[in-house]
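Researcher: I'd like a structural prediction for the single chain below. Treat it as a standalone chain; there are no partners to consider.
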Amino acid sequence: MQVQIPEYVMNTMDELREIPLVKGQSSPTLGDIAEFKVTRVPGEYDRSGPRRFLTVSANIHQTDLGRATTAVNEALKSLGPVPRGMVTEVKGMSSLLTETLASLQSGLLFAVLVIFLLLAANYQSMKLAVTVLCTIPAVIAGSLGLLLLTGATLNLQSYMGMIMSTGVSVANAILIVTNAENLRLEYRDASKAAVTAASIRLRPILMTSFAMIAGMIPMASGMGEAGEQSAPLGCAVIGGLAASTVAALFVLPHVFARLQKKAKYHSLSLMPLQKKSAKLQPQR
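Model: Treating it as a single chain, here is the predicted structure.
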């Protein structure tokens, strides 16, 4: 049996005990037949399958989701081991952010691996493939540096900018390495060939980099609708291209000269039907 009395009528426990059970009579009362005790129960709880869960939320004003997620994880670790039968999980946008960033990191590493394998097959040399990829650390360092200077965060947009910068930097490096390898076979001097190749490809590389940087300046400045969301992409591209251009013109020739210093001058092709040209034969 359920009896409900308006809350504004019941102010104390004694008033609850004095509720009459027979209409028009003062006794018996509820206190004569019932035992009263005070306890606490959750006013509301949710379920995920058969398991109850309690949601704890917080205001992340003036901070990004990544820092808030890190703070929440540190707070959970500071609690120590939870009681038996209780599980703590971080759900919502933070879990989606973590999965997205992990996927992008894996995608970037996979892209670098695929590029390395393709370059190794094209040049038929592991050294030349490594030489081309030496500009990628400069891309990452430049992107992260400009993001740090501008106060932008490492998010989906900035990761996309890094991947774009990586593609352009690899293309610029391929121009120099291909030209340098051809000149090495002609000059029989890796250092001279690397410097000459960088000077020959200076103008195309600068034109490509400056054109892309100029196109990304409006995006990096956050102009237009939703400009703040796309600004990290522009900052990542500008920083990555600026650093990779410097690395391609000044660092890559030294790496090429060091790795190809003792390389042979005859063809190392794995294709048996490939004809060797006269200039690939060693001098006598």
